[in-house]
Amino acid sequence: MALPQEIKPLNSELMDTLVQAGKMEWTPQPFDPERSFVKVLWTGAESGSWAVLLKWKKGFVAPPHKHLSASHTFILSGKLQVRDGVLNAGDYVYEPNGMLHGATTALEDTEYLFICNGAVLFFDGDKFTSYLSWEELRRAEAKAKARGKSAKAKPAAKAATAPKAKPKTAAKGRARAAA
Ligand SMILES: [Fe+2]
């Protein structure tokens, strides 16, 4: 029996996104690469929305900020000092577009899911310091990947400067390096 109306998507390029976060590396965040890490789960280039997992080491302090869009937070583990309250594992927070927030401190090593509909603007005293949107997240991820690749490439580069072996052995070495 046919449905009472057509529900087939007009956009034939629609696609679900599945991310196995457990298999991803944590990317250090530029403002505190020792204590703040992110896994980018999804970014919407057209909507500007993004979904990330954040890991903050105990003692990390996120600076004051203004939400330029609404966001959803779900604490997976740890403890965050947020203004006059403490967020614990299992807590959910909705932050509306326009909210002005003071610093947030990780009281313990903390992991949380953060889904945001746009940018967050950070400030310090009377000056803006930076903003975070899906583009900054993807740029940081690309830089971290490039650094990882260059670090992995170093041993191969050393091998290239090693004393020359017999022609047959050298040919084998090149073949392995290219694989
Ligand atoms: Fe906030």
Bound molecules: fe (ii) ion
Low-confidence stretches: 156-179
Could you say which structural class the secondary elements and strand pairing correspond to? Answer: alpha+beta
State the shape. Answer: globular
Using the coordinates above, name the CATH class of one domain.
Mainly Beta
In N-to-C order, the SSE pattern is EEEEEEEEEEEEEEHH
The name CATH uses for the topology of one domain is Jelly Rolls
Count of alpha/pi helices = 2
Q: Mind describing the biggest β-sheet?
A: 6 strands, antiparallel
The total beta strand count reads 14
What is the helical fraction, as a range of percent?
10-25%
**CATH architecture group name of one domain:** Sandwich
Distance between the termini: 54 Å
Would you mind describing this structure in some detail?
- The chain is an alpha+beta fold and 179 residues long.
- It has a domain at 27-150: Sandwich (Jelly Rolls).
- It contains two helices and 14 strands.
- It has helices spanning 134-161, 167-178, and strands spanning 27-28, 36-43, 50-56, 61-62, 65-67, 71-77, 79-82, 85-88, 92-95, 100-101, 104-106, 110-116, 120-124, 127-132.
- The strands form three sheets. A six-stranded antiparallel β-sheet has the order 1-2-3-12-6-9, covered by helices on one side.
- It is globular.
- The termini are far apart.
- The site of fe (ii) ion has 4 residues, from strand 5.
